[in-house]
Amino acid sequence: MPRLLHTADWQIGACFGQFEPDEAVLLAEARFTAIERLAALATEHRVDLVVVAGDVFDAQGVADKTIHRLFHALRGHPGPWVLIPGNHDAGLAESVWTRAVRLQAIPDNVHVCLKPEPLLLEALGVAILPAPLTQRHTHADLTEWFADAATPAGMVRVGLAHGCVQGILADDIDSANPIAAGRAGQARLDYLALGDWHGTRRIDDRAWYSGTPETDRFKANDSGQALLVELAGPGAPAVVTPLATGRYRWRSLTPTLQVASDIDQTLADLARLGPADVVKLVPTGQTDLAGYHRLRAAIGQTRGRVRGLQADLSALRLEPTDDDLDALRADGYLGEVITGLRDRQRAGADDAEAVLARDALALLAGILDERRARTAT
């Protein structure tokens, strides 16, 4: 009974430029750690082989050192590894894969499938049907040949592909690198290991996306896993078990702030975060200066605890109270401007000029408050 570990979308060499440099380095390093964890899981669960459904590397131009590190990480499991190129590391005439060959980086137990032809692992009774991408985007279904591919009788047929299953995933990613829905059944596959979608997703009884083993985006898509697949034999149902592999939890917080208790709740949510969290905070609504100060202070403290924090406060309106404005101690011309804006906001209720006056007042109050805080320090 062949047992395999299905994984994909390692994105080795990803830079995470949206984060601070020290955070980005640790997030990139976590991807290597995830591969080492995959090797350990493969050994622990005594799998017969590991299949990797594309996007092993994040880009063609990764450093030679990165190539060596990746293949060195695979040595943690001595059994066969079968890899195909995806859209990020397509098997071009000159590619990261040809460099890996020249560097003599690929271990003997690693099979890189650069051509659409069966790979027969006779000792395991497994025939791999790969659909490697040879360019970043194609509008042809590279898995079509699976149906006509002859494999020896009695061997389990495993397809390996990277792309978008048509009619299943979101419309905006349902174009390049298409894969026909129902391909596993139509091609008599016992299992179809898919890559490209970064979350774990079942397509049908015989086709799954494993997702990336280390979460890399703010989407609730069940990522950070690999799939343990048990195949009793040709035609038998695949038994698929997700295994946790990821280290970091990526969380998106989008609170709507209206009253002081909303700030309290947001601060409590931030306080629960720890070293395993990567966070994106995008509050909306409004707050006074006191609430704004509390939020900014909490963001600073949270950055010291979590692995990474992106905070976007641009959609949060600053609504200073009378006490806030009095505390700014703006006199002279600025005092007159503040008084005029406050009067215009009160007089116009919801008309366009009142809204403009409110936004200008909030902006000016924020600038003055920040200047006062800098002076005080």
Question: Would you write up a description of this structure?
Answer:
The chain is of the alpha/beta class and about 375 residues long. The chain has 2 domains: about 5-245, 4-Layer Sandwich (Purple Acid Phosphatase, chain A, domain 2), CATH 3.60.21; about 250-375, no CATH class. Helices cover about 30% and strands about 20% of the residues. It is built from 9 helices and 20 strands.
Task: Write a short abstract of this structure.
32% of the residues lie in helices and 22% in strands.
The level of helicity is: 25-40%
Task: Give me the Rg, rounded.
Answer: 27 Å
- The global form is elongated
* Number of helical regions: 9
What's the CATH H-level homologous superfamily of the largest domain?
Answer: Metallo-dependent phosphatases
CATH classification, class level of the largest domain: Alpha Beta
Structural class: alpha/beta
Unreliable stretches covering 5 or more consecutive residues: none
Tally of strands: 20
Q: Output the strand order for the largest sheet.
A: 4-3-2-1-13-14
Order of helices and strands: EHEHEHEEEEEEHEEEEEEEHEEHEEHHH
**Level-2 CATH architecture of the largest domain:** 4-Layer Sandwich
Kindly give the count of domains: 2
Beginning-to-end CA distance, first to last residue: 69 Å
CATH topology of the largest domain: Purple Acid Phosphatase, chain A, domain 2
Largest sheet composition: 6 strands, mixed
